Write the structure tokens for this entry.
Amino acid sequence: MLAATAACGGSGGSAAPADSKTLTIATSDGLGFDPKDAQPGYFDQYLQPVYDSLVRPDAKGNPSPNLATSWQYDANRTTLTMRLRSGVTFTDGTPFDAQAVKANLEHTKSGTSTTAGQLALVDTVTATGADQVALHLTKPDPSLLPNLGASAGMMASPKAIAGGRLKTDPVGTGPYTLDASATTSGSSYTFVRNPGYWNKADYPFGRVVVKVVTDGTAILNGLRSGQFSAGAILSTKDGPTAEKAGLHVLYYPNGDLEALYFYDKAGTIVPALANPKVRQAINFAINRDAIVKARTLGKVGPTTQMFSISADNGIYDPALDTAYPYDPAKARQLLTEAGYPNGFEVTVPDWSAVAPEVMAPLNQDLEAIGIRLKLDAGPQLQVYTNTLQGKYAMGWQPYDDNRPWDLTQYQLKTDAPWNPLHYNDPTVNQLIGQIQLSEGDQQLQYYRQLNRYLVEQAWSAPLSPAIFAYATAKDVTASPVAYTKRPPLWTYRPAA
Amino acid sequence: MLKFLARRLAGAVVLVFAVTALTFTAMSAISGSVARQIVGQTASAADVQAKAAELGLDRPVWLRYGQWLGGAIHGELGRSWFSGESVGSLLGGKVPITVSLVLASVVLSVVVSVAIGVAAAVRGGWIDRILQTLAVAGFSFPSFVLGLLLALVLAVQLGWLPAVGYQPFTEDPGLWLASITLPTIALTVQVVAATSQQVRGSMVDVLQSDFVRTLRSRGISAPSLYLRHVLRSAAPPALTVLGLQTIGLIGGTVVVEKVFGLLGLGTAIVSGSTQGDLPVVMGVVAIMVVIVVVINLALDLAYAWLNPKVRTS
């Protein structure tokens, strides 16, 4: 259904180390260098030069060895034992060992960020040997291991953690160190090669410079004029311009699912939404093909499934995308059967400023079957607050879906943050519980059941995964990795 | 003169207080969800509340403003809610960028406006008509559109100048000049369009004065007549226009900085207000108000120097 499309070359083939070359990445400003304050995603571009993570995601987002060389869960899946790579030291000379892992996980968990929240089910960490550590969980967490491949699993020097200056002075085991003399905070961060790094082959550039640039057009101009090696040009509509200029362009899923979400499935605000036929009617009424084509230039296809960020997750089923073809007549019939032949009115947040090519046709499509949208305009910051406070019965929004388990925890379960009206679906909760306690094929079966159930119940009206355009200069290539919001640093190569 | 300065400074203090109080109140009205922005979409409600308490969002607005004001008077502008960095050091690197653009634009505007205005007033005829037409065209061209065109043609296509980024003067004066050339041109065109017209108009009026006829009859040289005598008399109205344009130019830096990827005060206030990073926004507003006050004061002093009657009024 979707793939990250590499245009204009960019095979990502390996090249000989190029120590004299500088990789200049243009991106938004960071949140400092302390993993406990990190939000997974864009900000990893600041952290990846200096920190290694315990595991590394492969191209499909599955964990592979990194600082941890092997791992195993116990039968209850509440103790994760990890063997650590030996002979690795932080750049301040502190050895990387089990005690360092314990110090890091406890430190990161103490924050209030999304990254900290990813360790919420980690109760205690014990060093069971110099190079072995056990993570004891209060409950099984299917996302824990993959999450240890990003900011939640990044390892900083315990001495630096204790010193309290990690936010501005990072010390890790990573391929580069921050060159403070060539760094201007909030503007440009220079990282120079860590001479003692244990995996130099994966990082061919001698220097990495991360430049703060907030405007997509400025990034595109910088790429075209040769000032930058890589950057997100954000709008897929700029992708063709970048391709014509000879840049390599990846159309990259950013982990968000764009959908019309039904928050009020209990019918508290809008009684009609409690009826699955009404929600199904809305699904039939939306011309997904047209909206998604306009929004993504056809770089990704429409979907009816919430588990669709990665087509390779084994849960997404192409057949389910045919469940709700565009059929306004069918939609009107379902509304009539549900007792709403004249439709109804519903207040939704107005995202016209951000996604005019979505809001206008969505409005039209629903108006055509009698559902009148009352757009509630306001600052975008306020939209989040209003949504979380349960002000809206439904609304379009790009949600950070990311991994399948994350979707269940952040959106589906009764007390999920983005289930603001706390809709309780016993079937969903039961399946989530079964997923949590299973693994392998059995777990996959439960996920598939859940996916099918959500589509049949019209839990929401998904449109498509959100994608953006990530460009690299003619002499640089990068590769996408599932569930990451930017190509990880280890995928950049000088172009062959 | 001292009384004049004292009055201006007192007015400036009131202005700073009024603008910062209004900004703080407006920003506070939308700060309710900033804790969620900081901790992320998927953080728990408890984490959001903890962050809100950490930021003091549960305290009354007037109390928080008072604390901010007290700190600001002592040079402490607080810390960014997002990066945790001191606002002073965060903005310290951005002030030179915006000030470079503003000063360079003002200097270029004065030189070009005077040249165009004097040429048009003195030569008249087809030169005057061409220069007036160019001035009107320049006035109707938005600075960000011009900036985009300049970046595309001179930087991306021809590679003559950098398309994005700023090089500090202290690191390399040559590269500094290269990095501010295109944004300065983009900012200057509209200022020149308005100011040169005023210079031309004032010059034409003054050239018809009796004292000019007298000076001509005494055989004074043309350059001395036009630049030393006529221009000095024609300057005050042009100075007023320049002052207003310069204040508008500060607002124009917001867009031009974005186009050229310059991380000045303009970019800081856009990202700060989008995110809801109140300490950063307040820091930028405070600095910009001070810049406007200083510009107004400089113009008043220049006006007083040109027109002695103003000093005693």
User: Anything to note?
Assistant: Chain A touches chain B through 49 residues (CB under 8 Å).
